[in-house]
Write a structure and sequence with these properties.
This protein is α/β, with parallel strands linked by helices. Helix content is about 35%, strand content about 25%. The longest helix has 23 residues. InterPro entries: ITPase-like_fam, Maf-like. It catalyses: UTP + H2O = UMP + diphosphate + H(+); dTTP + H2O = dTMP + diphosphate + H(+).
């Protein structure tokens, strides 16, 4: 059994959470150009009528498929490959990463004063076997004035984050209540991830 895993994610928060678990890992990321340039935006497009749970599980599976192919193409040593994806949902509406500051402000205005769900799917490829888990948390945002939203967006923190916020950053000032997995909201639910790694033979 290898003593490390591949992490197919650019997120520094996911790396940090894996380190917290004490899991040795190496990044398995696509090259930014050439034949390995992957169209992540195309993978993350929501299908018509797609429910948030189906969406986040499908996207995670597609990202893991790409990572499995990447490892084989590069001739890298065999080891488990971990992939994760997070989305925010208000009812059946899916909130991915905002396109720009204006889009982020619109998202936050819709989430403010309501409870939303944060869904994080995790998948682990171990040889020919795929293990998967889903973490669902509920977050209630306090009401926010447009000035508060603009000030938060101006920090740049919402860009690149599902739902246009990072719970580990300044958005915490507006989180009235949460139920579920704090690490799952950050992007990698540690309990579910540890379960998958134990099932794969890692001594956690």
């Amino acid at each position: 059994m290898p003593d490390f895993i591949y992490l197919a994610s650019q997120s520094p928060r996911r790396r940090q959470l894996l380190e917290q678990l004490g899991v040795r890992h190496e990044l398995l990321l696509p090259n930014v150009d050439g034949d390995e340039a992957e169209d992540t935006e195309a993978i993350e497009v929501v299908l018509p009528g797609e429910a948030p749970t189906a969406y986040v599980e499908r996207v995670t599976g597609l990202k893991l498929d790409a990572a499995v192919a990447r490892r084989a193409r590069r001739g890298l040593p065999d080891a488990p490959i971990l992939c994760s994806d997070t989305t925010v949902a208000l009812g059946r509406t899916i909130y991915g990463k905002p396109d720009d500051a204006e889009h982020a402000a619109r998202m936050l205005a819709e989430l403010a004063g309501h409870e939303h769900r944060v869904l994080t799917a995790v998948a682990l490829q171990v040889g020919g076997k795929r293990l998967a888990a889903l973490s669902v948390s509920r977050v209630t945002f306090a009401a926010m004035t447009s000035a508060q939203i603009d000030a938060y967006v101006a920090t740049g923190e919402p860009l690149g984050k599902a739902g246009a916020y990072g719970i580990q950053g300044r958005a915490a000032a507006y989180v009235e209540h949460l139920a579920g997995s704090y690490s799952g909201i950050m992007g990698l639910p540690m309990y579910e991830t540890a379960q998958l790694l134990r099932a794969a033979g890692f001594p956690l």
